[in-house]
Structure formats: structure tokens, C-alpha cells
Predict the structure.
Amino acid sequence: MGKISSFLDNTYTKILLGATCVVLLIMLFMQRTTRQQFKEVQTLPFHNTQMEVVQDGTYKNALFTSFLKVEVEVTVQNHTIKDIKILNQQGAQEGELEEYAKEMVSANSSDIPMPKVKNTRDINFPKIVFISCVDSALYMGVDEKDKNPAPVETKDDKTE
């Protein structure tokens, strides 16, 4: 019993135990934040808008989550995305959303590839929000007769 008592009285041991507690608390907070973000992106609209039914025009949309606020303006001409302007963004790294916009213009689609992930910590939540924002803007340019009755839900959207 004396060895344990003297071990706990050591200043370095107290510092190590305190640092360990802080690291564990940070990890718990990050896990909670990831779960909250995951729940938020599950509620975002995804219409899987096909460019051949999008009319010429400029369409604005904004999405606000607890971790990202984004407003876009998408210009379509001859069923082609000509430009995606990011009017407002808060919560994304500098240049991150612009890269996604370039991918979408290049692919002429709001459906840009997402890498496979093994757990929720690896999910790129800002990219998902941006995709939903642009897709919803494009959906505004779809004639009422061509609209889906409800946003598209894919197998990948469900957790197992």
C-alpha cells in the first residue's frame, strides 16, 4: 500500500493522470460532435437532380447546419453547369468548397464522388452539406412535371 501511495504523491504522476483525463474528455467531446453532425447530414435533402431536366437560369440556395453555413449561386446554360459561386461560407476550410464547386462544374453534376469510409470520423461532412446545397439549387430549375415526389434516399444513406 505504501508504494501506491508514494506513486500517487509523485508530481509527475499527477500531471500524467490530469493530462490523460483531459485527452479522454476531448475524445468524448469529438465523438459526440461527430454523432451530431452525422444526424444533421442525414436530414439534408438530396434530389439526385439530373442536368438534362434543369432549365437555363441562375439558382440560389443556402443551407445552415451547426458546423457549416453555405450559400451558393448556380448558373445553368444548355443543361450544363456553367458556374457555381459561393456567396457565403462559414465553417469550411479556406478553398475547400471551391474545390468541390470545380469538381461539380467539371462533372456537370452535383453528384461528385465520396471516398469510402470505415467509420463516421472519416466522413467529410462539409462536402455532403455542399453537395446537398448545390443539388437543391439545381432542383429549383427542374420543371414541376419532372420533379421527384420526395428526395432520393440511397442504400448508402442508411447505417448498418
Remarks:
- Residues 155-160 have pLDDT under 50 and may be disordered.
- The two ends are 48 Å apart (CA to CA).
- Helices lie at 2-9, 11-42, 96-107, 125-139.
- The CA atoms of residues 16 and 22 lie 10 Å apart.
